[in-house]
Amino acid sequence: RRGFDLGLLASVNSATSRPVILSGGYGEPKHLVALQGTAPLPSAIAVASVLHYNQASPSELIELAANLTSTAMAA
Predict the structure, then answer these.
(1) Rounded distance, CA 39 to CA 68, Å?
(2) How many domains does the chain have?
(3) Within-domain flag for 1
(4) pLDDT tens digits for 29-73?
(5) How far apart are the C-alpha atoms of 28 and 40, rounded to whole Å?
(6) Is residue 39 part of a domain?
(7) Residue/partner pairs of 57-62 with CB below 8 Å, 24 or more apart
(8) What range does the domain containing 38 cover?
(9) Residue 51: Cβ within 10 Å count
(10) Cis preceding linkage at 40, omega within 30
(11) Cβ(39)–Cβ(58) under 8 Å?
């Protein structure tokens, strides 16, 4: 929960054209914000533990993800 491994994400993105699912590392909203500089964005992000332990609500995560998508599409 110290943030995503953005270096690994970049390596995987460059090695495949398949959809990438990002799992592990999410602990707080700034971790999603850190994804804004990545291209392409992951196809999915696993955040089950954050929801399970009530560290964020589904609506908070949806809003953050929507902002990420808008930013990525504007670039």
Answers:
(1) 11
(2) 1
(3) no
(4) 888 888 887 778 888 888 888 899 998 899 998 888 888 765 555
(5) 21
(6) yes
(7) 60/29, 61/32
(8) 6-74
(9) 13
(10) yes
(11) no
- Tell me the whole-structure pTM to 2 decimals: 0.72
In a domain, 48, yes or no: yes
End-to-end CA distance of the chain: 28
pLDDT band at 8 (very low <50, low <70, confident <90, very high): very high
Which tokens belong to 32? 């999603």
In a domain, 22, yes or no: yes
Residues in the chain: 75
Residue with tokens 């609500």: 57
62-to-7, 15, 34, 59 alpha-carbon distances in Å: 24, 28, 16, 5
- CA atoms of 65 and 68, how far apart (whole Å): 5
